[in-house]
Amino acid sequence: MGAPRTPDAGASVAWLRRFVHTTPGVVSVIAVAVAACCVIAGVVVAGQLDERISEHDTVLDHSEPFAYAAQNLYVALSAADAAASSAYLAGIETPRLHARYQQALAEAASALADATAGATDADTRKSVAEISGQLAAYTGLIESARANNRQGYAVGSAYLREASSLMQTSLLPNAEKIFTANLSAVDEDQRAVGSTPVIGLGLLAFVLVAIVIGSLLLTRRTNRQFNLGLVVAAVLVLVVIAWVVGATRLAASSIERSRTDGTARFEQLAKARILAQQARTDETLLLIAHGDITAGQITFLHRIEDLTKQLDTVHSTAVGGVNGWSQSHHTQVAAYLRGDYAAAVNEAIGTDPNGSAAQFTIVESTLRDEIEQTRATLRDRVATAGAFLAWSPTGTLVLMVFAAAATLVGLWPRLEEFL
Amino acid sequence: MRARVATALCVLVLAVAGCGSSSAPPPSVAIPPIDAQPSGAQEVTTTPGAANADCGDREASLRPGPLPAPGAMPPGSTMAAIAERGRLIVGVDQNSYPFGYRNPATGQLEGFDIDVAREMARSIFGDPKPGDPDRVDLRVVEAGQRESALVNGEVDLVVRTYSITCERKKTVAFSTTYFNAMQRILAVKGSGIDSVAQLAGKRVCAATGTTSLTALLRLSPRPTVMSVTSWTDCLVMLQQGQVDAISTDDGVLAGLARQDPNVEMVGDSIAVEPYGIGVKKENTDLVRFVNGVLDRMRDDGTWKRLYDANLRSLGPTTPDPPSPRYQD
């Protein structure tokens, strides 16, 4: 390149110009051009399909597990808050209630570690850092509440309310931010798996056009209707187009189902689970505050209403538990309003199978199971989409190389006639 | 020639392209320290409706008639309706040791205010026989909700460290004074705060909707006043170093001081707070009845007995009950 143009070089360019206007020249150009287009299109299509497969791997190995971890973090944090206020309400907390709080904290810590691995952007990392800091502050406040409560100091309940306020106004919104960001990442990656490889299909169409033009030129020069090599190449290109369209369509419909039955439902169920936890916290805080319950009662009923709506849209079986819980809550409020505090507390955190604690546990575990099922469905559908695409990059590349070979082999006899 | 120019161009392009990247590290995450505050804590500079209402002698109440015997309330009276219902509903506090607080050992509400409330119920229903249901229904009301609880008829009486003010007398009626509280200051020992003058430039905490808050805002120079929902929230803020002092009635402060050995009550009285029992304004018969019961308690020694049982932490000697004043 860049070599000074010698008289020799000028002569060879001139020869080439004359050669391409001769019949063997035209045949050579068609052969080389079509074969090259086939290989290029094959490489591009295979590359694009490969991208979709790696997006599918990303969904299964990264974005979906991160969203799941974020969901766990969100739930574990609000579960810790609900458990802490229940334990406080019990006065000298029972080992069972304290163990539940510790369990929720352990789950939150684990989920935080998992979610941290997925925190690639600055915003998410900031949220993770804030959650770590706030969680440390939160547990400190809970321990202050416990220490004061054990000495019978009313200031303990003020520490507990402060902790819960930190949870509801800082920790949970941060966890929700991470959860929402991770879910939209899953959604984006999912859509990438099912998207049509437009550039590749465009190139394949171009190859077809090139073959048709080549055939027409050839017909004019050689007076033969069809060249078998070009026909085989065209058929192979058509097969590849059918394969690409078919595989991506099938993958896309599988992805579509993974989004509706999986991601969307997953989000709804997770939100329902948080609402249940928050309502549970409200319920126990009402009793801890010992105050006028009007405002707290309104918040609780709003949450239960939202929860029921949410469960209806996703046809969750947790609705039964919510009804039982609401009934028990009414009993609790009635007891509180007639001044029977002990009965109200017993209704809220006692071991009665019809009591709020047991009914809430039913709602919680039902939602947890449904979230696990939904997660399995989501992953299953994405894996199916991947299976549809699995052999497509190799297959299309091989077929397009065959198409290039067929072109060369088919046109060689025409060229040979002039040698 | 051409080759050399091309090479030079390539070198130039690469060098320019390389200019964008530097050796600066990527930004790391930085968050501010977490400073949790009680929910609803905020700085206030004015109290809503702080107009200095004037109603003459705020402590003057309605003169009682002869006290009806327990269980024999005059027909058609508010007391008869309460007797009919079977329970006296009283708004109290559960966070103000030693006036109204929940004993963590028993889970029961106890304190001076609670005992006064029980005395009222006893005067309507008579001495409870063993196995009788509790005749007094204690409902916890927040400081800022005392008026609305009475106006809406949620409670019959409010016995809850309730200072008699002209402002409040516009919406509710008060009994005669049953306790005189002093508004004082609670500060950390060794903090240097030992008088009202020391509060200048300091952060002071009080509960929303209380007369203590209004009194603090009237101080000159005015300290930075933080308002919170409950008195225990003030102690949390003091322990967390978010305020320098708490100012309210000595009884409430004594209750807070009991929960933290590092704080002490200091200074002279900022204001005297006469506690009265709140009654719905329309129920004048109930006001007169309550005043009658308070009179009996002053005369037969019940008041001193309740003081000794609940308020000995305020001082070594038992004072005389505040004398009643009447407007009619």
Distance between the termini of chain B: 119 Å
Helix fraction of chain A, binned, reads over 70%
CATH superfamily of the largest domain in chain B: Periplasmic binding protein-like II
By helix and strand content of chain A, what is the structural category? mainly alpha
Give the number of helices of chain B.
Answer: 10
Tell me the strand percentage band of chain A.
under 5%
Low-confidence stretches of chain A: none
The number of helical segments of chain A is: 12
In spatial order, strands of the major sheet of chain B run 1-11-10-12-9-13
Strand content of chain B: 15-25%
What is the percent of helical residues of chain B? 25-40%
Overall number of structural domains of chain B = 2
Distance between the termini of chain A: 31 Å
Please provide a written account of the structure.
- The complex is a heterodimer of chains A (419) and B (328).
- Chain A has 419 residues and is mainly alpha-helical.
- Chain A has twelve helices and no strands.
- Chain A is elongated and about 110 Å long.
- The relative contact order of chain A is 0.14.
- Chain B is of the alpha/beta class.
- Chain B folds into two domains: 78-178 and 276-314, Periplasmic binding protein-like II (D-Maltodextrin-Binding Protein, domain 2, 3-Layer(aba) Sandwich); 181-273, D-Maltodextrin-Binding Protein, domain 2, CATH 3.40.190.
- In chain B, 30% of the residues lie in helices and 20% in strands.
- The chains are: A mainly alpha (419), B alpha/beta (328).
- The interface between A and B is large, with 44 and 43 residues.
